[in-house]
Amino acid sequence: MKWLRAVLPVTVLVASGVVAAPAGATPGWQKYVVAPSSRDVRPVKVLSATGDVANPDGLLGRGVATFKRQAPPPKPVWPAGTTAAASSFHSPNNGGNGQPRTYDPGNAVDGNTGTFWNDDTIGAYPDVLTITAGAPVALPGVTVLSNVDGVPQDFTVEVLDAGAWRVAASVTGNTAVQRAVTFDRPVTTAQVRITVTKDQNTPSGEFSRVAEVWPGVVADPPVPTAVVDFGKVVAGYPKIAFAGASANRPGVRLAFSETRQYLGERSDFTRSDFSGGPGTDQYAVPSAPTVWRDTKGCASGNQVCADGLHGFRYLRISLDALASDAPLAQPSGEVRISGVSLDFTPFLGTPSTYRGWFESSDEELNRYWYAASYTNELGMDTFRESDVDPRGAFSPSLDGKLVLHDGAKRDRDPYVGDVAVSGLTEYLTHQDGTAARNVLADLADHQRADGWIPPASINGYTLPLFDYPLWWVTSSWDYVLYTGDTAYASSCYSHLVKALDSWYPSVTDSRGLLAKGLNGTGGYGDYAFLPRTGEVTYYNALYVRALQGAAGLARATGHAADAERWLSRASGVATAVNAHLWDPAAGAYLDSAEGAVRHGQDGNSHAILAGIASPAQAASALARLAAGALPYGNPFMDNDTLVSDGTKRVYAFTSFPELQARFRTGQAASAIDQIKRMYGWMATHDPGITAWEGIGEGGSHYEQGYTSAAHGWSTGVVPALTNELLGVSPTSPGFATWTVSPHPGPVSWARGAVPTPKGALSASWSQQGSVFSLTVSAPRGTSGSLVVPSGRLVLLDGRAVRAAGPLTVSGGTHTVLVVR
């Protein structure tokens, strides 16, 4: 036995590659860090250049790029008295910017490109626009100028010829905002009819939007355009160094996108895009050299406007100007650019900022951990009025504070459901929890009188979600567990009681289950705004988890009676879930007790984590979830009765609890396989590296260009690998007690550190053949349990101990050797 104690641990560690780095050497994990090295971020290459663009590499700081464009010719006009009629048109409103506007068909022939006809049948066709000229006009064709977020893709142009309508041209697959349509032969006519049968589907809806129809074939000089690639999604304020320009104030328009697929003449999502604006940022370039920093606002009134901060990978720069920006900006002239860059505003996660880290024998897992960390960093930023999502999201109580935003490019507002995952990622990588605490405390301060807690500041803290107050409870417990901030627990305790003892009882039915629809909640949404009603397994399993977390907060603040009461309620809800929501025929929990029979990833996963499911039920439910496995993850529903793509849609948000459940029930290999399919897909598809909000059919961005490709709620691979694979987790506030319970699966070795209030808690394990070795170093003044595989021989710090069960240790360094 002396030989085993003295030699075997060293032999195993060396064989598996877990060896200490030489003094002064760079730790191996640092090579996986993704963040830029400084806040001055530059594009890595020019993807394309079209039109008159000389030396496009000047955009990268290699000389000067020169954009030139001749002035477009005057546009043809219809005869006086020309009118237009349409099959439908939208009623007047204040647009997306509070300015009154109309959408009647006459806007398409008024000579003003700032107005447009907008049909009133979203996604329904045909949409017909009929133009009656004030006098017959000779036409070789017409030119259709669309509104930038409603391009007609398929349409015909008919003319009244010799008293009868005939098709003079057909267009399919159009993507151009300005489309010249040449007729099969010239015609003199007084009427033209455009029939649209398909439009571009945009975040502003699927409508026909036509700004102008010009009587003639308009061939403007091509727009000089170049696209630069920053190599990965970045966030902040774009900057352009202009070396000079012609004296006519030529305009530059910027379009941003996280993917090449959705990079076009407008951004894939920007605030002006969503609110009915041009979807681009505009700047009028002065003749003298200058450095322009994209700033939210307009140069004058409502002219030459920009959105400021953006999240994107690709930037499209064009020498062009909106007609509505004249005369401040012109669509022609010469612009010289000596460099493009970005002021990076999110948390800058360089190697020196990592307080926790992870590394294993599996290169893919290492890359996914640090890519998810970077995803989270992109959303960790200061809450600023100029940069948050505009839908009533600004809040003075958050202004200037570090928060965890929903995403880098869209929904720049902190949502508590996202914090449930992004908060864990924050605690395990860089921060002390400040960003999460700021969000949680602010939402508690805006609790409704009846106990409901808002999900975010959006819409003035009124967005009605059914499940998010439960996420506030679980996120609050996680925050206290990881940081030890019991002062927060005390300050929020009254809010906790009000949510759990007032609001959720008001939506509990006679069977003891939460039932969406009670107390006026029929129209409430959830994390995906799913049309679920009644007793939903996900809501009730999350309720059990929230009650368990609340009991932890109660104990931490000296409310033992509340803890016992909430645990008793949790037990009752768990019993009711098993009695009413378990489907023995499917071997899984129902999504809902009413409506079509289906089984959800969210409800089944949370039922396992909450301890509702027995081991046999857990194994059966996980098998059900795996049955629909896709190349890009596991779908969130097992049929399409709730939403049309339920079996094709993958959320990393709802996959995270499934990963946890698989690790904890002895299915580490299947958890790792699921990680590699889901995170591997996102890492190898545009934009690469960052974790997407959701994956749709065929592995697409599930909401097309609206999808956030860098979303904090999708970073669960960080806690999955640290808490489950490496095995390090707190069991009481501030890691006063902890557990290290590795779930190795097929991984040969792993090591890492977790930040705690008293210093890092590090763990390193390896498995080679029949030998498993674990070394843990924990801060003094803490204690924990080591859970290792059972074996014929178990040595703790060189002493033989029992062959099974947790090993209790105090702070310091401890080594366990298991011979199986």
From TrEMBL:
Locate the compositionally biased regions of type Polar residues. Answer: 84-94
What biological-process GO terms show up in the record? Answer: carbohydrate metabolic process
Say which species the protein is native to. Amycolatopsis vancoresmycina DSM 44592
Is the keyword Signal assigned to this protein? yes
Q: Where is the Alpha-L-rhamnosidase six-hairpin glycosidase domain?
A: 406-627
Record's signal peptide: 1-20
User: Region Disordered: which residues?
Assistant: 70-103
Domain F5/8 type C residues, every copy: 99-208
- Record-linked Gene3D superfamilies: 1.50.10.10, Galactose-binding domain-like, Maltose phosphorylase, domain 3
* Database matches in Pfam families: Bac_rhamnosid6H, Bac_rhamnosid_C, F5_F8_type_C
Source domain of life: Bacteria
Tell me where in this chain the Alpha-L-rhamnosidase C-terminal domain is found. 727-792
Q: Which InterPro entries match?
A: 6-hairpin_glycosidase_sf, 6hp_glycosidase-like_sf, Bac_rhamnosid6H, Bac_rhamnosid_C, FA58C, Galactose-bd-like_sf
Q: Write out the entry's keywords from A to Z.
A: Signal
Protein name in UniProt: Alpha-L-rhamnosidase
Q: Which residues form a coiled coil?
A: none
